[in-house]
Write a structure and sequence with these properties.
Length: about 400
């Protein structure tokens, strides 16, 4: 009872302080809101919407079940999750956060994952997509596309590390031995057909449901992005960020990292985009120090994305704690990988040359096309978002009219 009352007091006090801060810093709050909104409708919404819709369609048509049967011999021994986890992992890396959490929750609702399997899966299938790592962070902030290779390798190796460690999670809760199917295309096609037949929805209804569900999720994500953008700004003006930064300095000193990275690090714990940008602007720190801290906050995901994941998981019985624990593991492991791979993946290949935006042809084709794609998305993002929201309003109005 005492713990519950204490929690109530803390939550009420926090919201009250935030309300007072909004009144005390109106212009700063509006600027932060606009920044969050701009990020959402230029980048997040148009980049995630196609993946969310296609994922819903793939689940409905049984393709995910088909992929799950084929990947079962790989995913079960390595990560102790069903083969469908391979689909979630791939889509999570391609589309970015919080796609892995949404797909995991969706498959849990479909009954394709047990509670423990879902908690293992969600802990390592949420990651930043390559477009964000190369286009926004490496080229946009650091003006050095070659750093993208190092950041991406460290980031995704961190994902694998979390997956391998979390395979031991819930081991005592599994009373029966988890079966591993053999590779069978015939069995995969059978599961695909069975899943499609069992879903009685017509194609039009399935597509409409996919659009509605995806846009509803993205609206929720947009709200969290704006909220945490404002919170981050208010914490700075209330000098809370600076206070926490003083404590972080001791930790950074322990690992022989620059103290100047303390405040950007705190900002990155709340929102990875702002944190990465601030880290890239710290001239007092070496580039290696900047990369190590950036790797940590990219892997930790920030409280903004974690709140989005918590909201998605709240619709199921999936526990949020394994996901949060996984973010801490990935944060440290990605930082360690960035440190270990600095010499072979960046310092040795650069040979003391000045940073450049050109990405090696052998990796990503001619020129910095990821940077160009990112710039194009910022231009096309707003009209795509407006069109999708108008479509959502039409579909929603139609359903209300038909239900009467």
């Amino acid at each position: 009872m005492l713990r519950s009352k204490l929690k109530t007091i803390i939550l009420a006090s926090s919201v009250t302080i935030m309300a007072i801060s909004l009144v005390s810093f109106p212009q700063e709050s509006v600027d932060a809101s606009i920044r969050g909104l701009t990020m959402w409708w230029e980048i997040v919404f148009p980049s995630l919407l196609p993946f969310f819709i296609v994922s819903e369609m793939l689940i409905g048509f049984g393709v995910v079940k088909f992929i799950g049967v084929l990947l079962e011999p790989l995913m079960r021994p390595l990560f102790r999750v069903p083969g469908v986890g391979g689909f979630v992992w791939a889509m999570g890396m391609a589309s970015g956060q919080p796609a892995g959490a949404k797909l995991t929750a969706r498959l849990r609702q479909e009954g394709q994952l047990t509670k423990v399997e879902a908690e293992r899966l969600v802990s390592f299938t949420n990651s930043s997509n390559p477009l964000f790592i190369f286009g926004a962070v490496s080229v946009g902030f650091f003006h050095n596309a070659k750093l993208g290779i190092l950041l991406a390798v460290a980031h995704y190796l961190g994902n694998v590390t979390v997956g391998l460690l979390m395979r031991f999670y819930g081991k005592n809760l599994s009373r029966t031995k988890e079966p591993t199917r053999k590779f069978s295309i015939r069995a995969a096609f059978s599961e695909l057909h069975r899943t499609r037949v069992n879903d009685k929805r017509p194609i039009g209804k399935l597509l409409g449901d996919a659009v509605m569900s995806s846009i509803q999720t993205l609206l929720m994500i947009g709200g969290f992005i704006i909220l945490f953008s404002v919170i981050n700004k208010l914490l700075f003006h209330l000098h809370i960020t600076g206070f926490l930064g003083e404590a972080v300095k001791y930790v950074l000193n322990t690992f022989h990292l620059s103290e100047a990275l303390s405040i950007p690090f705190i900002s990155g714990l709340f929102e990875i985009t702002l944190g990465s940008q601030l880290i890239s602007q710290v001239k007092e720190a070496s580039l290696m120090n900047q990369v190590i801290i950036t790797s940590f906050i990219l892997a930790f995901s920030g409280f903004s994305i974690q709140a989005q994941v918590a909201s998605i998981l709240a619709q199921t019985d999936i526990n949020f704690k394994p996901f949060f624990f996984g973010r801490i593991i990935q944060g440290f492991s990605a930082s360690i990988y960035a440190f270990l791979l600095w010499e072979p993946l960046y310092a040795r290949t650069n040979n003391g040359e000045q940073p450049t935006n050109a990405i090696p042809v052998t990796f990503f084709g001619e020129g910095a096309w990821l940077s160009d794609t990112f710039s194009l998305m910022t231009k096309l993002g707003p009209p795509i978002t407006i069109f999708a929201l108008c479509l959502y309003i039409l579909l929603y109005s139609r359903r209300i009219y038909q239900s009467k």
